């Protein structure tokens, strides 16, 4: 692993995360990855919500292959995936991604236990599923055996019988919209009200597109996979286009085996 950006006079010397030009082939420790992807420190007024997304895309813009992201990922990408989860209070994900990717509860990681305890976090992040219909299999481990109760983000007009089924399965239903659907800005506020200010979304593309359109995304962690897939796979964000493109600035870039691990922040 090597750091490509930011470039400073000390780039060739050991960087704060521990990487340097001279040891580009060395695998970074989890502590180093956690330092490289740390959330912003709370300001004088206390913690405020910070929503980051973590996605992977091929060179030709595909966010998945055969409906899943795993074929275009790598071992290091998965280590960063796990690190980002370990830093988060809650992982926000769309219902379609839960169904396609076979989502399971986030697990406690011994490597991050002390760090999470010092930050006042639970042993593992909660999973928050965004769904209008609540068309989910509530017999899955995501709902029956999570370390931290799974959250359901839905609208006030959600079907009462589905809400009851979710709650019976052990999920906590959180209203984040006046109608059937979920308002992304209201979802962020609702999660912050529950004490979840370090937010991570893993998509899918439709949910990320809604967050982009609503202007609530603070940071994008994008892995650029050195692969070409062609076909008609989704991009990392879908849905209606925004009126004016949202400008983000490059925060950092790491590289390993041709994969680029980038961070972009709201400009």
Layout of helices and strands:
Blueprint lengths: L1 E4 L24 H7 L13 E9 L16 H13 L2 E5 H7 L11 H6 L7 E5 L10 H4 L6 E4 L5 H9 L3 E4 L8 H10 L4 E4 L3 H10 L4 E7 L22 E9 L2 E8 L1
Parallel strand pairs: 2-7, 2-8, 3-4, 3-7, 4-5, 5-6
Antiparallel strand pairs: 1-9, 8-10, 9-10
Folded structure, characterized:
This protein is an alpha/beta fold and 267 residues long. It is 25% helix and 22% strand. It is built from eight helices and ten strands. Strands 1-9-10-8-2-7-3-4-5-6 form a ten-stranded mixed sheet, with helices on both faces. The longest helix has 13 residues, at 75-87. The chain is globular.
Number of distinct beta strands: 10
- Roughly what is the average pLDDT, rounded to an integer? 92
Q: Note the beta-strand portion.
A: 15-25%
Residue runs with pLDDT of under 50 for 5 or more positions: none
Per the principal axes of the C-alpha atoms, what is the gross shape?
A: globular
Ends apart, CA distance between termini: 27 Å
Helix proportion range: 10-25%
Kindly summarize this structure in a few lines.
By secondary structure, this protein is of the alpha/beta class.
Key terms:
single chain; 267 residues; alpha/beta; 10-stranded mixed sheet; 10 strands; globular
